[in-house]
């Protein structure tokens, strides 16, 4: 029993870390623009395709040498992060920026539109013939992502709890990135400008902050986080699929809302909570009930804390 | 040449014309005040200068340079800062971080350090509370922070919108004393105030705004003594 609990704790934590990384992108953009970038999950998905394509181009498989695997892994992380950041930035420039002063529904519907377009790009990408794309000739089929890390149990072959190198990677790398992000937001000039802009864009302008630049940086960072998350998620799940951004994006968005949209620690907390609830619900209630249990709990949380767990409802002095 | 000159500035909100051709000047070293009723266009005059609400026509000349085509965040770099109505401090940032944001466009570390000291000397309470979130300060302290934050931009011209709004008389007196001190230290000030009496007492010159137009202008003492002004803005017959 204890083993099962520990195992689900681990699974929940790793999944939660990925949700948290994606949730950060939603929450950072919302914090500044009060806008939900519904295409964010699909930036995550396309970034995974970049990593998958790179693995194919480099000929990386489970049988490659350790050096090649580590090098390839780092390259995938770098390429997907850069791709995710730039794609997100480009989407903002082309689609959202012209709509900045439009009624709020206009950018929202456009974001949903971009999400569908990116899914079609993913479908097309998956249909291209490349030997690394497993899952048959179907464009829509999940593609196998090579297991770049050895599938050994770090706790020993006899342990009932499985802790693989990829679990350590997911948790360790995510923590590293989150601490880094916290440092940027809290202590750098850009981070402070981001916070100031989120709190009062007009006052930020009057202090000489170029708000457009801050918004661009926010999309770039959020997209890079999604790109980074896509690689570790693909390594963890070992498949890439053109609809992976839709579900994970929706979960991550929910995590951001439950944590308190616009609140960075809230996104992490919401992501971890979502991952853990999901893991325990799958184990003890049944995977088929996952969405109902998960969202039922989240609705209850929101009923009691409408602004989210760390969201503030307190009015500030004017 | 005047430090600031507005030439026939018009500004619109949709179809409503808030400024119907404002012309005014501010000379180096002056305190100039804009007085007038609510909705007369005082705040719009300031936002037209700082660029938050671009004029629909006319010129805003700062140091001879037309600001109407300059982005608000670049205007700060030219030495003109606008401390907006309602203080608008960054509530979830600390007092020190708010002041840091004032110095956002600057990179002279020593100068910034010196200006932190200067602000803390003007407003000792800000030093005591420097690690406190700005949103937890009292209204008067927030106004001091807003003025301090504006000073951190190292302005030659400070636009101040309603610094006395909602504050106790004692605090208002403190704020106005600081405005005079800053002016003596070389900062030119354009002051918008509901509290016309206080504003006219410290100002050198004044403009009276009515429904988007300048209806009277002159030395502050003369405006203060004008019977029409006394009747309309000073509550005396």
How would you describe this structure to a colleague?
The complex is a heterodimer of chains A (318) and B (237). Chain A has helices at residues 2-33, 40-58, 66-96, 105-127, 165-187, 189-199, 201-206, 211-237, 244-259, 264-284, 290-304; strands at 143-144, 239-240. Chain A is 70% helix and 1% strand. The termini of chain A are far apart. Chain A is an all-alpha fold and 318 residues long. Chain A has eleven helices and two strands; from the N terminus they run ααααβααααβααα. Chain B is of the alpha/beta class and 237 residues long. Helices cover 38% and strands 27% of the residues of chain B. In chain B, the strands form two sheets. A six-stranded mixed β-sheet of chain B has the order 6-7-8-3-9-10, sandwiched between helices. In chain B, strands 2-1-4-5 form a four-stranded antiparallel β-sheet, covered by helices on one side. In chain B, a hairpin with a 2-residue loop joins strand 9 (205-210) and strand 10. The radius of gyration of chain B is 17 Å and the shape is globular. The relative contact order of chain B is 0.18. The model of chain B has no long low-confidence stretch (mean pLDDT 95). The chains are: A mainly alpha (318), B alpha/beta (237). Chains A and B meet through helix 6 and helix 7 of A and helix 2, strand 6, helix 3 and helix 6 of B.
């Amino acid at each position: 029993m204890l083993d099962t609990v520990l195992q689900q704790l681990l699974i929940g934590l790793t999944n939660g870390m990925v949700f948290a990384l994606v949730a950060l992108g939603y929450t950072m953009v919302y914090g500044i623009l009060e806008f939900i970038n519904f295409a964010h999950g699909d930036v995550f998905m396309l970034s995974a395709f970049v990593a998958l394509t790179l693995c194919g181009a480099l000929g990386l498989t489970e049988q490659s040498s350790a050096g090649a695997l580590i090098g390839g892994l780092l390259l995938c992380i770098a390429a997907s992060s850069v791709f995710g950041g730039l794609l997100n930035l480009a989407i903002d420039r082309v689609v959202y920026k012209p709509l900045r002063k439009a009624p709020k529904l206009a950018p929202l519907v456009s974001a949903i539109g971009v999400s569908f377009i990116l899914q079609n790009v993913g479908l097309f990408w998956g249909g291209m013939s490349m030997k690394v794309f497993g899952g048959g000739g179907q464009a829509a089929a999940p593609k196998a992502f090579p297991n770049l890390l050895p599938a050994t149990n770090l706790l020993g072959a006899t342990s009932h709890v499985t802790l693989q190198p990829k679990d350590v990677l997911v948790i360790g790398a995510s923590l590293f990135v989150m601490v880094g992000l916290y440092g940027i937001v809290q202590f750098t000039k850009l981070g402070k400008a981001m916070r100031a802009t989120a709190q009062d864009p007009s006052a930020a302008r009057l202090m000489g902050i170029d708000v457009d630049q801050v918004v661009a940086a926010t999309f770039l960072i959020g997209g890079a986080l999604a790109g980074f998350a896509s690689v570790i998620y693909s390594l963890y799940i070992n498949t890439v699929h053109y609809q992976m951004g839709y579900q994970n994006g929706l979960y991550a968005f929910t995590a951001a809302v439950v944590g308190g949209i616009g609140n960075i620690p809230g996104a992490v907390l919401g992501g971890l909570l979502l991952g853990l609830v999901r893991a325990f619900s799958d184990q003890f209630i049944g995977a088929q009930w996952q969405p109902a249990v998960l969202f039922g709990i989240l609705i209850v949380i929101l009923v009691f804390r409408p602004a989210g767990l760390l969201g503030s409802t307190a009015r500030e002095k004017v | 040449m005047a430090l600031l000159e507005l030439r026939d500035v018009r500004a619109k909100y949709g179809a409503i014309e808030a400024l119907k051709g404002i012309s005014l000047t501010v000379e180096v070293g002056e305190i100039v005040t804009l007085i007038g009723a609510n909705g007369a266009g005082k705040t719009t005059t300031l936002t037209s200068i700082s660029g938050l609400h671009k004029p629909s026509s006319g010129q805003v000349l700062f140091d001879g340079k037309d600001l109407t085509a300059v982005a608000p965040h670049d205007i700060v770099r030219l030495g003109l800062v606008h401390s907006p109505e309602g203080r608008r401090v960054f509530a979830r940032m600390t007092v020190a971080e708010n002041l840091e944001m004032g110095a956002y466009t600057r990179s002279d570390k020593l100068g910034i350090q010196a200006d932190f000291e200067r602000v803390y000397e003007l407003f000792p309470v800000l030093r005591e509370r420097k690690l406190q979130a700005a949103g937890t300060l009292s209204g008067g302290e927030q106004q001091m922070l807003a003025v301090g934050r504006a000073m951190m931009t190292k302005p030659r011209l400070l636009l101040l919108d309603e610094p006395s709004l909602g504050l106790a008389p004692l605090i208002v007196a403190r704020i106005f004393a600081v405005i005079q001190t800053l002016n003596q230290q070389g900062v030119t000030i354009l002051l918008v105030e509901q509290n016309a009496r206080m504003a006219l007492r410290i100002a050198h010159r004044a403009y009276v705004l009515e429904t988007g137009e300048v209806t009277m202008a002159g030395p502050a003492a003369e405006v203060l003594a004008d019977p029409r002004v006394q009747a309309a803005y000073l509550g005396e017959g």
